[in-house]
Backbone:
């Protein structure tokens, strides 16, 4: 039986496997173990899956009024709604990576705009990531909102 000890990167491992004449069941086993190894390595900067993150009870958000150039930083609890001008921001979840992982914070926000005399209109609903605000940004002509961190234990 052939045993491969992984001491190199997956790409150089592929080259060494191809260089050897591995046949039949040994080839199948090698390829299966190689695909498992490659699934463990993720590309740098890839956003984590929110289910693998730790839930927190609140988030620290920052808002920008593009007309006045004023920023405001505020903390919002899960399930709470806060106002930023004509926007109503509701935090549905805030998650962050465990301390041993690469720092990342993600918050699920629902943003509704209430204009006087008009029906409320949804502006944004989804996950925002602190490390990549442009990845899932709220598009609004007057306001910007982004996640800074999760709060609480």
Residues:
């Amino acid at each position: 039986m052939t045993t491969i000890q992984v001491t190199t990167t997956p790409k150089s491992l592929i080259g060494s496997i191809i260089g050897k004449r591995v046949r039949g069941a040994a080839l199948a086993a090698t390829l299966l173990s190689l695909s498992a190894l490659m699934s463990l390595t993720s590309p740098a900067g890839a956003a984590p899956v929110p289910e693998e993150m730790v839930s927190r009870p609140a988030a620290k958000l920052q808002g920008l009024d593009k007309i006045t150039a004023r920023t405001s930083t505020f903390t919002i609890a899960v399930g709470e709604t806060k106002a930023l001008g004509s926007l109503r921001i509701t935090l549905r979840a805030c998650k962050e990576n465990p301390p041993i992982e690469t720092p990342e914070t993600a918050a699920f926000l629902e943003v509704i705009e209430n204009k006087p005399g008009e029906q409320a209109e949804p502006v944004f609903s989804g996950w925002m990531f602190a490390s990549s605000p442009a990845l899932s940004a709220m598009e609004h002509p007057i306001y910007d909102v982004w996640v800074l961190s999760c709060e609480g234990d």
In short: The first strand starts at residue 54 and ends at 56. Residues 24-40 form the longest helix (17 residues). The chain has two helices and eight strands. Confidence is low (pLDDT under 50) at residues 1-46.
